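If you are new to this repository, start here. Below is one unmodified record pulled from the training split, so you can see the exact layout before writing a loader.
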Amino acid sequence: MTENCKHSLNATPESSRPSKIPKTLDQSDQDEEEEVEEEDKQQQKSNMIKNPRVQRYLVAIEYIGTRFSGSQQQPNCRTVVGVLEEAFHKFIGQPVSIFCGSRTDAGVHALSNVCHVDVERISKRKPGEVLPPHDPSVVRNAVNHFLQKNEGDVMVIDVRCVPNDFHARYKAQERTYFYRLLSGPEPLSTFEKERAWQVPEKLDLYAMQAACKILVGHHDFSSFRAAGCQAKSPIRTLDELHVSEVPPTPYFPSITEKDQSNSRLEDSHSCSSKPDNVEFGTRRSHRCYVITARSRAFLYHQVRLLVGVLKCVGMGELTTSDVERILKAKTVTAAKPMAPACGLYLGRVKYDLPPDS
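And here is the target side for that same chain:
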């Protein structure tokens, strides 16, 4: 992606709109649902030559996806990896290569994505003198210092040392995504723009939960696989697919709500909108639903296609029988339009890591 890339290096973040973000031309840079290939030869290609003076760090990051053209490096585009590599370059004084555990498309956010980077600490006062590796806390603080000078829409939340053969992508055991739906006719709050998908109609939580039970498990997900998917097989195991209702965020309790029992929020079906007789100047909140999807690997656009179907079930446009029919059809043309990227969050990439000493 070059001349038609929306998020150019000179573009301002405020001008971005997730619904108009162009699709990445390089199909290997798939969004939240990338094909995970486990072949040893591919892993060896991505690993740097072993150097005893090099320390590999595992770095967890969060970012606002609407301000990037995706996570992976692209020419003339502002990307998560590009911004992160620039910050590391300023920190250690030499270029680095960063590999993400999960690739996210333009508009997709991350509460915690994970990447790895190799750093050789060389003295700036005595060129050529190799020093002991930086402590992970030093790496986190120093890189965040430079990130905050570059829009501040990416932040390092955790760092730890790992062996030089540890690969952030191939060592991942599972990935968890969250999707936020806001239901209600009220205009979307400024604080929620590009952070969720607004659905004006009411949604039936129980119906969506019933549909989840049909989709969870080991299936051929061809109906939830977008064109251009490079996965060799459409077979996937969806370990979790669940819909829950939560308080809208940012959440500030009203006087009435503060007087009510805290147990009200413990009931997933009781997080309803504020009463119609709200005081002047007080915004009427939406009902907020979070869809959780967890699997070792996803197909291209699988999560957003699943959300699109669940939303139609919640609106009454589809029944659980329709969901079964769509799944058995094994063609994406049977599914409903996929959900926009702005409501999707990469929540966690899980690894089998030893206790941090």
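Two things worth knowing about this chain: DSSP finds seven helices and ten strands in the chain. The chain has a mean pLDDT of 83.
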